Amino acid sequence: MSSPVGPTPANVVCPNCRQQVTTRTEPKATNKTHLIALLMCCCFCWICAPFLYCTECARNTDHYCPSCQTFIGSYER
């Protein structure tokens, strides 16, 4: 089950343990992030490409229950 979540921790009821929790978030690089970095390298902006992996602006945010570690949902950028 995927709940509507945003880029910051959200208050949700976990579908697995049924507790009201504030989600634990993890930013994840996606294929889109890798493609943008590759294009930057091809355009001689290779110095800037690693910054995509250091900021959250080009990565999705996955949400997990802090109690049972169940995946709650993903915020896609």
From TrEMBL:
UniProt keywords, alphabetically: Membrane, Metal-binding, Transmembrane, Transmembrane helix, Zinc
InterPro entries given in the database record: LITAF (IPR006629), LITAF_fam (IPR037519)
GO molecular function, one term: zinc ion binding
Membrane-spanning intervals of the chain: 34-53
Subcellular location(s) of the protein: Endosome membrane; Late endosome membrane; Lysosome membrane
Recorded superkingdom: Eukaryota
Gene Ontology CC entries for this record: late endosome membrane; lysosomal membrane
Membrane topology, from the record: Peripheral membrane protein
Boundaries of every LITAF domain copy: 1-77
Family under the similarity heading: Belongs to the CDIP1/LITAF family.
Name assigned to this protein: Lipopolysaccharide-induced tumor necrosis factor-alpha factor homolog
Native organism taxonomy: Eukaryota, Metazoa, Ecdysozoa, Arthropoda, Hexapoda
Gene: LOC117571967
